[in-house]
Amino acid sequence: MATHYLKERTLHPVYELAADLMIDFRSLSRPGDVSHRLPGASTKIQPLYGSTTLPAYHRDMEQALTWLREAQSICVLTGAGVSAESGIPTFRGEGGLWRRFRAEDLATPEAFATDPKISWEWYDWRRQVIAKAQPNPGHLALVELERRVPTFTLVTQNVDGLHHRAGSRNVIPVHGDIWTVRCLECAYSHKDERAPLPEIPPRCPAAAVLLRPGVVWFGESLPVEPWRAAEAAAGKCDLLLVAGTSAVVMPVGGLVGKARHAGARVIEINADQTRISNTVDLSLRGPFGDILPQLLSAVPIQHAQEIKD
Ligand code: APR
Predict the structure, then answer these.
(1) Burial environment of residue 167 by CB neighbours within 10 A (0 to 12, 13 to 18, 19 or more)
(2) What is the Cα–Cα distance from 189 to 184, expressed in whole angstroms?
């Protein structure tokens, strides 16, 4: 059984204080409110090569290109950073959710049991933000990559459904889906994409008890079959692409070690340095929505195999 937990406390004391002040998110419930965007990210990140020198950057991109061309089986692991360019806040980056709210007050079974209304107000607000978002060039490039390689698996920590909306097929949402609601008592489980929800907290039409969001909370086990499939894909691929994740949340962050252990090459694409940047084969710095489309534009259309349709 694989339980969802944080590898290390990443919140700096100052942020804990801010979180303790419990900024009232209800005042933020206007989807598309600019403050939800990743403030400064587009200016702070030196698009395409961060602190790396241009020659070094070109060398790294060339290397990534060679490995992409050679790969027969690719596994991609995505995190909140891939959806950041669609206007969805990340968790730990600048303007991230866990810098404004306390995970233990909103995203644990205990928090939900203590105050389901607050927890649902928060999920309803996130659903409204996501409902306004569109897949970005990074999502679309992954759809194209899937068409070009014989074996492709997309393991995502994101619950926003944007990979599916972009057209990706072999997607494993290991942290669940924010658009699914489940009954706390009976087997009722349903896709409900209304944003905002007409009733907070929503109730089960069968059992008349509370519904919960279909996401994995901290301290909960990951769904067995999707997790097994994710582990198998990471353990069998010859190239693992780690995109837009801080890789601090386990057990998913451990897929990097699993792939490396099985002999795969690992390429990280991230706007910032992360916990794994010094352990992967290649770490490309910059917006995912810039870097993968660029790499793809240099991968031959006909990748020695029939394009999968
Ligand atoms: N392109 C590439 N990387 C980006 C971009 C971008 N445009 N914008 C931000 N990033 C990077 C950040 O530098 C950071 O390393 O994305 C990462 C986002 O990390 P987190 O906010 O920690 O999100 P994630 O890794 O997905 O969190 C994992 O934690 O809170 C739980 O269940 C939740 O699935 C989530 C899990």
Answers:
(1) middle
(2) 10
CATH architecture of 55-84+135-175+222-303: 3-Layer(aba) Sandwich (3.40)
Q: Give the mutation target among 36, 106, 227, 272 for probing the ligand 1 site: most ligand atoms within 8 A of CB.
A: 272
CA dihedral 10, 156, 116, 202 (to 10 degrees): 160
| pTM across the whole model | 0.84
Going from the Cα of 83 to the center of ligand 1, the distance in angstroms, rounded, reads 9
Query: DSSP letters along 217-273, please?
Result: PTTSBPPHHHHHHHHHHHHH-SEEEEES----EETGGGHHHHHHHTT-EEEEEESS-
Domain 103-132+177-215 is of which CATH architecture? 2-Layer Sandwich (3.30)
For residue range 205-237, list pLDDT tens digits in order.
988 899 999 999 999 999 999 999 999 999 999
Residue range(s) of every CATH 3.30.1600.10 domain in the chain: 103-132+177-215
